[in-house]
């Protein structure tokens, strides 16, 4: 199973790229455990990832940073828009700190954003600078 490994606040965070489990949105909506919620951000169902990241951002604002950054580097724009709509100013600052600790990961995330824009969203957002995930990370 492919693992993502990043630093956050001096600690190594490892999480799977994707998980396949039978959890439902209702299951995730009732979760309060950090470990379970962060795993659900890696769920194969985008709706479950979206519910999980919102809960994680609210319950664990600082600890959620690696998981929300990973989701910004994926292709589901609805999740990008949810993150952008839910993020608090302090979390935005923490993303910059996170990227300082993970320079090559930052390049990977930014490259994925450009790649997904080019592949899936180029006709909706003629200019890359207007694509929400790109715009968000450039602000």
Task: Characterize the structure shown.
The protein is mainly alpha-helical and 139 residues long. 60% of the residues lie in helices and 9% in strands. The protein is built from eight helices and two strands, in the order ββαααααααα. It has a two-stranded antiparallel sheet. β1 and β2 (11-16) form a beta hairpin. α2 runs antiparallel to α3 (46-59).
Number of helices: 8
Structural class: mainly alpha
Sequence of secondary-structure elements: EEHHHHHHHH
Our estimate of the beta-strand percent is 5-15%
Strands in their spatial order, largest beta sheet:
1-2
Q: Summarize the biggest pleated sheet.
A: 2 strands, antiparallel
**Gap between N and C termini, in Å?**
34 Å
Radius of gyration, taken over Cα atoms and rounded to an integer in Å: 14 Å
- Low-confidence stretches at least 5 residues in length (pLDDT < 50)? none
Mean pLDDT: 97
Share in helix: 55-70%
Strand tally: 2
Mass-distribution shape: globular
């Amino acid at each position: 199973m492919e693992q993502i490994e990043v630093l956050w606040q001096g600690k190594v965070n490892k999480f799977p790229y994707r998980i396949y489990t039978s959890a439902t949105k209702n299951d995730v909506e009732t979760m309060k455990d950090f470990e379970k919620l962060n795993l659900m951000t890696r769920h194969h169902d985008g709706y479950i990832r979206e519910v999980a990241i919102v809960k994680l951002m609210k319950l664990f604002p600082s600890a959620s940073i690696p998981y929300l950054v990973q989701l910004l580097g994926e292709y589901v724009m609805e999740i990008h828009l949810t993150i952008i709509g839910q993020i608090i100013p302090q979390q935005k600052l923490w993303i910059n700190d996170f990227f300082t600790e993970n320079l090559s990961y930052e390049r990977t995330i930014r490259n994925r954003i450009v790649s997904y824009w080019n592949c899936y969203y180029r006709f909706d957002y003629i200019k890359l600078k207007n694509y929400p995930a790109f715009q968000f990370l450039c602000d």
